[in-house]
Every structure is written in structure tokens, then in C-alpha cells.
């Protein structure tokens, strides 16, 4: 895996990151640090990537478990050390999983597996940060299940 991060030039603290898979992301600093607040901060990107990593795992695990998952949001709330290096010291993950007839135990298991075995980002951050998790399940009956679609057509 590779990425290139390039400073955009004199007069600010903006950077463009280009990934090995061909995508570009802008990052910027806070105004008090010379940035212009035009893009996420680098540490926000770390948190953002961690959220994406674990949400991906949770959806994949639930799908493999034949759960009718329709949405998965995860809100990460983090605290950082007050002195340099300002590493994350606490991160709380709150998952909102939406679907039809989702089993509580399977959602709980998917979240645990992500954080204990699959999500490289959260496992890495757990070396410096105290991790906690919570979740809620929302029943979604607005879209018919595949079985109901088939039955309605017959």
C-alpha cells in the first residue's frame, strides 16, 4: 500500500494525498496553525478511516450472517492527549445499525469481531487509546424484503 502526500505550496498548510488506488483527498490545518480550514485535519482523517474500516467489517459480517442489514452508521467521539504527541487517548464508537429483523446477538458479535480481529485501524489505535463501543438497532420496514418482493409478484 502506498500514498503520496504533497504540500500545496507557500501560504498555508494544505496538502493533497494521492492513494495507490488512484484517489485524491485534501487535508488542511486549523487557522491557528497556518491552515485555512478548507479540508479535514490529518488526525480527523485517521478517525474517519477508522470509522470506515469498522463499518465495512460490521456490514460484511452481518451480510455473511444472512442478516437483512440496510444501514450502518458509526459515530466516533475521540479525546487526544494534551501534550505532544497528541495521540488519541479515548475513542468511543456508537453504531446505529438499520435493517429488518436484525438479531441483537449478531450485531453485537459483528462489532466485537471487527474490533478484536478484523479492523486494522481500530486495533492499531487501541495501542494508545481506551476503546469503548455502544450500538442501537433500528427496524426498517419501509422496503420489502426479497421474500416479500417475490411473494408480491407471484
Automatic annotation (TrEMBL):
InterPro entries: KH_dom-like_a/b, OsmC/Ohr_fam, OsmC/Ohrsf. NCBIfam families: PRK10738.1. PANTHER family: PROTEIN YHFA. This is OsmC family protein. It comes from Undibacterium cyanobacteriorum.
Amino acid at each position: 500500500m502506498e500514498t503520496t502526500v504533497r504540500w500545496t505550496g507557500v501560504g498555508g498548510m494544505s496538502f493533497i494525498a494521492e492513494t495507490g488506488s488512484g484517489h485524491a483527498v485534501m487535508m488542511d490545518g486549523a487557522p491557528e496553525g497556518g491552515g485555512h480550514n478548507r479540508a479535514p485535519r490529518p488526525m480527523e482523517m485517521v478517525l474517519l478511516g477508522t470509522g470506515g474500516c469498522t463499518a465495512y467489517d460490521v456490514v460484511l459480517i452481518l451480510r455473511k450472517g444472512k442478516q437483512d442489514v440496510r444501514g450502518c452508521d458509526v459515530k466516533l467521539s475521540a479525546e487526544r492527549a494534551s501534550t505532544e504527541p497528541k495521540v488519541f487517548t479515548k475513542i468511543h464508537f456508537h453504531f446505529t445499525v438499520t435493517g429488518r429483523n436484525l438479531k441483537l446477538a449478531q450485531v453485537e458479535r459483528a462489532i466485537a469481531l471487527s474490533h478484536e480481529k478484523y479492523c486494522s485501524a481500530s486495533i492499531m489505535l487501541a495501542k494508545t487509546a481506551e476503546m469503548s463501543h455502544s450500538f442501537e438497532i433500528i427496524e426498517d420496514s419501509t422496503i420489502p424484503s426479497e421474500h416479500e418482493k417475490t411473494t408480491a409478484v407471484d
